[in-house]
Specification:
- The structure is a homodimer.
- Chain A is of the alpha/beta class.
- Chain A is 49% helix and 15% strand.
- Chain A has 11 helices and 12 strands.
- In chain A, helix 2 links the parallel strand 2 and strand 3 (58-61).
- Chain A is globular, with a radius of gyration of 21 Å.
C-alpha cells in the first residue's frame, strides 16, 4: 500500500508533516509506504534539522507550492508541479492508494473533483468531520465543501456517511440523522422536508429522523447530515463555543491562591476533557464521494494530527471504503429512481 | 402605560408568570399597569396559593388556552377567547401598549402577523434573541420565525436589529454583521452574497461585514443577521454545546474528595459564569417588525425571566421602538428601491 502525503500542506508544514510521517511509519508503518511530496531540498533540510531519517520514505520532488492565498480553481488547473496536484494525479493514475493533505480545503476539494473524479452518482465530494460528544463522536457532513445542496445530495451524504461510520468508525448499525429545527417530520425548509422524505425511504441507511442542534452533543447519532452552509456553521460554532467557555473558566481558577490550588487538583480531569475535544485525535476529514481515498487534515495539524490522518487513510484503503461506498450508492440511487418512476406513474 | 401579560403561556404557567408579574410591579411598576390574561378562576386560585395580591393588576378573563400541541395557524384563527389571541387583539385595538407571552412561538408569530400586523415593508416579524459572549451579548435575528428568507428580508433584519440594539440595549453605533462561512465579501451561497451586497449599501446601519460562526462568541458584533433556519441552529447549538460542556465538567469535580473540596473554592466563579449564560437575565425575544411591541419570553421562563420580559416591553414602549424602527425601515427600503432603479437604468 502506498499513501501520498502532501508535505507542504498546513500551517505547520513541512516540520509537523515530517514528524507525523515519522511517527506513523514507526507506529503502523508495516506493509505501507509513505511518499512525501514537496520541494526535495526543503524537505531534506527540514528533516536534517529535526533529525528525521528519510530512508523509510519515498521522496517525490514537487517544486511548486499552493498557498492559502491561491484561488482554488486556478491552483488546481495551473500548479501542476505542486505537491497537491502531483499527488492527486498519481492517485488518479493508480500509482498510489490514498492522498493526505493539510493544505487549502478549497483547492483540495476542487482538485479532487477535477483530477481524482468522483464515485458514480456523486458530482462533488462532501467534507466529513468527526465531532466529539458526551458519548462518542458523530460524523458530520457536508461540513462546508458544498455550500449549496439539493435534497438528493443530502440523501447521498446519508449513504456515504453511514458506510464510513461502519467501515472506519466501527459502528455496527449507524444511526443517520438530519439536522432540523424540530423533531417532527414536516419541519424545516422545503429543502429539508424533501431531504427528510428521501432519507426516510433510503434502503442503504438506518434513518433516525430529524435531530435538533440543541441535542447534537448528546451523542445519540452516528452520522448527521445537512447542507454545507449549515454544516460549516455547526462545525465552526461548536469549536467557537467550546473555546469561549474554556477561556471563561480560566479567570475562575486564577482568582486567588485557593482557586489556583484547586486547579492543581482538577488539572488531570481537564486534560482528559481537552483530549476528548482534541481534533488531532481523529486526524482529518475524508472527502467522501471521491473515487479514491482523500483525507483533509486540519490546517493547524501538529504531528499527531498528521499521524492520525495517515492512519485514517490506511483504514480507508484496507477496508476498500470507496468500493463499498459505490455499492451502497448504487442501491440508494436505484431506490430513488424507482420511487420517482412510481410517483410519475401514479400521477 | 398598559402591558398585557399572557398568564397561561410557558411551561411554568400560571405560577411563574404571576410571580414574575408581582416582582415587576414591585420593582418597576410605577406608571405602568400590568393586565393578566387567562381563566380568571385559575389565576385567582394560583395567586391565593402563592399569596400574591392581585389588587395592583387588571384581570382579563380568557377561558380558552393555547397549548404546544395546537396547530399555530388554527389556534390563531379559532381560539379567540384564549389569553394570547385576546391579548393581541387588545394590542391591535389600542387598548394596551405591549404584549408579553411565554407561550408557543409558532402561534405567537402567526397570530402577531395576522392580528397586530407588521410595520410597512415587513411581511412577517423576525424573532431576535440576545446571545451572551466573552464581552457583551449580541442580538441574533432571525432566530427561527422565518426558516426561509430572501436577501431583502435579511437586509431589513439588519435595520431592525440595529434600532433595537440602539434603543433597548444601549449600543451607540451598533455593529451589524452577517453570518457567513468566510470573512471575504464573496463568500457563501447566492442568498448570502446578495444579502451582503444589500447590507453593505444599507444607509440605516453600520455594516461590519461577514462574521464566521467560530468568532460569534468573541462578542465583537452588536447585531448578527442570518436566515431563520441558520439562526435557529446558532441559538440552539450554542445552548447545546454550553450545556454539554458544563455537564462534562461535573465528573472532573466529582472524582474524589480533593476535587470536591476544590469545587467549593471555585463555586462562586462558576455561579458568575452561569449567571452570564442565563437567558432569564435578558427575559425574552422581541418579535421585531410587529406593528406594536410583542415579546416572546422563553418557554421555560421562571419568575425572573417573566419579570425581565416585562421590563423589555416597558423599554420598547418608553422608547417608541416601533415608531423609530418604521422611520429607519422607510430609509432602508427607499435606498434599496433607488439602487434597483439605478441598476435597471444602467442595464
Amino acid at each position: 500500500m502506498k499513501i501520498l502525503l502532501d508535505a507542504m500542506g498546513g500551517d505547520n508544514a513541512p516540520n509537523a508533516v515530517l514528524q507525523g510521517a515519522a511517527q506513523a511509519a514507526q507506529e503502523f508503518g508495516q506493509g505501507m509506504t509513505i511518499a512525501l511530496l514537496g520541494p526535495a531540498e526543503t524537505l531534506k533540510k527540514a528533516a536534517a534539522e529535526l533529525s528525521i531519517d528519510l530512508a523509510p520514505f519515498e521522496l517525490i520532488d514537487c517544486p511548486e507550492v499552493i498557498t492559502m492565498e491561491d484561488d482554488p480553481v486556478k491552483a488546481a488547473r495551473q500548479k501542476k508541479d505542486s505537491s497537491m496536484i502531483r499527488g492527486l494525479t498519481m492517485l488518479k493514475n493508480g500509482e498510489a492508494d490514498a492522498f493526505v493533505s493539510a493544505g487549502s480545503t478549497g483547492a483540495l476539494h476542487v482538485a479532487t473533483s477535477l483530477i481524482v473524479r468522483t464515485l458514480k452518482g456523486i458530482k462533488r465530494p462532501a467534507l466529513a468531520a468527526q465531532i466529539p460528544t458526551l458519548k462518542q463522536p458523530f460524523l458530520l457532513l457536508d461540513c462546508g465543501a458544498n455550500a449549496e445542496c439539493r435534497a438528493d445530495m443530502i440523501n447521498t451524504f446519508g449513504t456515504m456517511g453511514s458506510v464510513y461510520a461502519q467501515q472506519i468508525m466501527g459502528r455496527a448499525v449507524p444511526a443517520v440523522a438530519l439536522v432540523n429545527n424540530g423533531a417532527e417530520d414536516h419541519k424545516g425548509t422545503p429543502l429539508y422536508r424533501e431531504a427528510h422524505e428521501r432519507l426516510k425511504t433510503n434502503p442503504s441507511i438506518h434513518f433516525a429522523g430529524n435531530i435538533e442542534p440543541r441535542d447534537l452533543l448528546k451523542g445519540d447519532a452516528d452520522v448527521v447530515v445537512c447542507d454545507g452552509f449549515v454544516g460549516n456553521v455547526i462545525l465552526k460554532l461548536t469549536e467557537g463555543v467550546a473555546g469561549a467557555l474554556l477561556s471563561m473558566l480560566k479567570p475562575v481558577f486564577l482568582k486567588n491562591i485557593a482557586t489556583k490550588l484547586a486547579y492543581l487538583t482538577v488539572k488531570g480531569g481537564f486534560k482528559d476533557l481537552k483530549k476528548m475535544m482534541d481534533s488531532e485525535e481523529v486526524g482529518g476529514a475524508p472527502l467522501l464521494g471521491a473515487a479514491k481515498p482523500v483525507i483533509k487534515a486540519h490546517g493547524s495539524s501538529k504531528a499527531k494530527g498528521i499521524k492520525n490522518a495517515i492512519r485514517q487513510a490506511r483504514l480507508c484503503v484496507e477496508n476498500d471504503l470507496c468500493g463499498t461506498m459505490q455499492k451502497a450508492l448504487d442501491e440508494t440511487l436505484a431506490a430513488a429512481a424507482a420511487a420517482e418512476t412510481a410517483a410519475a406513474e401514479g400521477n
